[in-house]
């Protein structure tokens, strides 16, 4: 009997510490102090729920892998996580805790796709309000296309690296729709509910 592969999927909301050069523009999209405070409160409560669920996973040094939204396949995955964790990212602090408990950190995404999406999002944020309807529609189409390509790449990466009997832990932004791209033998577990049930847009 073939051993199944398990994927523990945590939906995440990116905080300013995760967004790098996009953080200032994203912050400006919430115009009032009340809106910013409310968003911070909701995100804080959300992350506490994720942290509590992840901290009780029976992670060991054998058969556990951690995959992270936005983490490119490169030679410096751990350094990227360490830097972002030191900068205050709750997401990457949690990833670091899991690796310290023995889970293997996995580069998860295509660097080329991440750069392509970053450049598009930067353009959209900088030109917000100045685009014609047609330009906004085309930009939205391109963004959606890149997201699907990212989802396919992440799914292929998990399929190629998660061995039978192993458990993967994936932290993935709410806008993603990964499950249709995963192989049937990957059992998906949702410790804090499916992304569309979380009630937060990220």
> Beta-strand level of the residues, as a percent range?
5-15%
- Rg of Cα set: 17 Å
Number of strands: 5
Q: Give the class from helix and strand content and strand pairing.
A: alpha/beta
Overall morphology: globular
Instruction: Give the termini separation.
Output: 40 Å
Q: What proportion of the residues is helical, as a percent range?
A: 40-55%
Order of helices and strands: EHHHEHHEHHEE
Which spans of ≥5 residues are poorly predicted at pLDDT below 50? 197-202
The total number of structural domains is: 1
Q: If helices are DSSP runs of H or I spanning 4 or more residues, what is the number of helices?
A: 7
> What's the arrangement of strands in the largest beta sheet?
3-2-4-1-5
Largest sheet: 5 strands, parallel
- Provide the residue-averaged pLDDT: 86
What does this structure look like?
This protein has 202 residues and is of the alpha/beta class. It has one domain (5-197). 49% of the residues lie in helices and 13% in strands. It contains 7 helices and 5 strands, in the order βαααβααβααββ. It has a 5-stranded parallel sheet, covered by helices on one side. α4 crosses α5 and α6 (111-126) runs antiparallel to α7. The longest helix has 29 residues, at 133-161. 22% of the residues are buried.
